[in-house]
């Protein structure tokens, strides 16, 4: 014979306990045995794994009062700076625009000077050929094909070649006996502490010497000797 379980609840109850089948004669009986399994011993408190929360693993960082004050000051400074810029942005933009224009003007000026320096050098070289040939008048006034020293000095006075044209023009006037014109160009020549600068002072001294002003000539010769000390040129001065 068989034993049927009437419902699911009974089936679960049977499953929760140990089951044993005893065969007696020709019948089969379902015997329910109680669960005598010894319960697990309690786990000691010391061996239990503690439960760690996120706050234990990552404790919050404490912010010092000094750091809070520093952050407040930075925030306040940034806010004040932005407010000042917003109130004066028209002036700020105007100043930035002016600075940009000045910088652009300076850059443009130097580009312009560099571009005309080549032209000035070419014009000076052509007039110096006449000067070296002893054609001092032609070197000063120029010819149909050559720009004279006077025009080079006037047209390119802001360049190094234009400045040097004053020096050669002064010497050409001196050689032609035109002493006042020579003094004018010696005065316009920007003198450096080099051989040409010393020669310009000596040229002025020579003009005053020719005019009989020996005291002033002596002072200029001494200045020329001290400006560029050389065993070759200083004794001549």
Task: Label this structure with key terms.
237 residues; mainly alpha; Serine Threonine Protein Phosphatase 5, Tetratricopeptide repeat; 10 helices; 6% strand; elongated; disordered N terminus
Description:
By secondary structure, the protein is mostly helical. It has a domain at 119-236: Serine Threonine Protein Phosphatase 5, Tetratricopeptide repeat, CATH 1.25.40.10. Helix content is 62%, strand content 6%. The protein is built from ten helices and two strands; from the N terminus they run αββααααααααα. A two-stranded antiparallel sheet has the order 1-2. α4 (89-132) runs parallel beside α7 (160-175) and α9 packs antiparallel against α10 (214-227). The longest helix is centred in the middle third of the chain and has 44 residues, at 89-132. It is elongated.
Topology readout:
Elements (H helix, E strand, L loop, with lengths): L7 H8 L2 E7 L2 E7 L20 H4 L7 H23 L1 H44 L3 H6 L7 H7 L4 H16 L3 H10 L6 H16 L3 H14 L10
Antiparallel strand pairs: 1-2
Helix pairs in contact: 4-7, 6-7, 7-8, 7-9, 8-9, 9-10
């Amino acid at each position: 014979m068989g034993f049927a379980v009437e419902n699911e609840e009974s089936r679960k109850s049977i499953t929760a306990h140990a089951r044993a089948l005893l065969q007696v004669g020709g019948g089969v009986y379902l015997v329910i045995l109680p669960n005598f399994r010894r319960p697990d011993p309690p786990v000691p408190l010391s061996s239990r794994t503690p439960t760690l929360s996120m706050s234990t693993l990552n404790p919050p960082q404490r912010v010092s009062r000094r750091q809070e004050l520093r952050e407040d000051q930075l925030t306040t400074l940034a806010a004040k700076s932005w407010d000042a810029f917003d109130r004066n942005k028209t002036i700020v933009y105007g100043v930035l625009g002016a600075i940009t224009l000045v910088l652009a003007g300076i850059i443009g000026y130097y580009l312009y000077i560099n571009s005309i320096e080549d032209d000035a050098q070419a014009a000076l070289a052509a007039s110096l050929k006449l000067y070296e040939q002893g054609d001092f008048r032609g070197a000063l006034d120029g010819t149909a094909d050559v720009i004279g020293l006077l025009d080079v000095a006037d047209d390119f006075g802001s360049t190094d070649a234009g400045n040097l044209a004053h020096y050669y023009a002064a010497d050409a006037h001196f050689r032609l006996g035109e002493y006042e014109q020579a003094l004018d160009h010696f005065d316009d020549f920007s003198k450096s502490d080099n051989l040409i600068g010393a020669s310009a002072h000596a040229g002025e001294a020579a003009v005053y010497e020719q005019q009989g002003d020996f005291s002033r000539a002596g002072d200029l010769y001494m200045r020329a000797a001290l400006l560029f000390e050389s065993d070759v040129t200083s004794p001549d001065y």
